[in-house]
Design brief:
The protein is an all-beta fold. The protein has one helix and eleven strands. β8 (128-138) and β9 form a beta hairpin. It is extended, with a radius of gyration of 23 Å. Mean pLDDT is 85; it is low at 199-208.
């Protein structure tokens, strides 16, 4: 961002307060100017098409001697997501180039008895492929070349509890990522190896 017309430094303290696209700078203790934040608007895409299937089912067992039970299963399969960013560029399949997984799914079990309830949820993000710059040995020297990397599937388990209070209140407590699973990393030959992968959660099919 080098366009002075987009520089709102001194006029606003937060990017979300700005009237449109722009950026704010900050100055550190050494007098060095750093970028504080950027506000970007939507970018029009020339063409986009996604093909896939979403499935969902749930069942409840009510008024059993041991309380109310519930089970819910959701799954999404994204076959392809073809995107052409501009009219003069070829389209690309984001499931092959941008780490957009084919599979995602959630399974949830719930139980409630009186004022107390609990739920256990399992989340799956499937294997994802993408294209990046890969370090390849050439004549004893590592050279950056375009290549393909694969992120392993990512599984998480969340546990939550809640208690209904007598004055229409509720107390909630939970553990996110109960098994403390770290997201998969890029291959060591990938120039982005030290970055955490970015999953486009809302691109192409329903969010679970």
């Amino acid at each position: 961002y080098n366009d002075p017309s987009l520089n709102y430094t001194g006029q606003y303290s937060l990017c979300e307060d700005m009237p449109g696209n722009g950026y704010l700078n900050t100055v550190d203790n050494d007098g060095v100017v750093n970028l504080a934040c950027v506000r970007n608007g939507p970018i029009n895409i020339a063409e986009e098409a996604a093909q896939g299937v979403d499935l969902s089912t749930n069942y409840r067992w009510r008024d059993t001697p041991y309380g109310d039970f519930s089970a819910k299963l959701e799954a999404s399969y994204l076959d392809s997501k073809e995107v052409r960013e501009s009219a003069d560029e070829p389209s690309e399949d984001y499931t092959e180039t941008d780490y957009l997984p084919h599979w995602k799914g959630t399974a949830t079990l719930g139980w409630a008895l009186g004022e107390f309830s609990t739920s256990l949820s399992y989340y799956l993000t499937g294997e994802a492929r993408g294209e990046d710059l890969i370090l390849v040995p050439v004549n004893g020297v590592l050279v950056k070349q375009p290549g393909t990397d694969v992120l392993d599937k990512y599984e998480r388990v969340n546990l939550s509890f809640s208690y209904e209070l007598p004055w229409d209140g509720k107390v909630k407590w939970g553990v996110t990522n109960l098994t403390d699973e770290m997201p998969p990393t890029f291959d060591v030959s990938n120039t982005r190896h030290t970055e955490f992968p970015y999953y486009q959660e809302d691109a192409g099919y329903n969010v679970i």
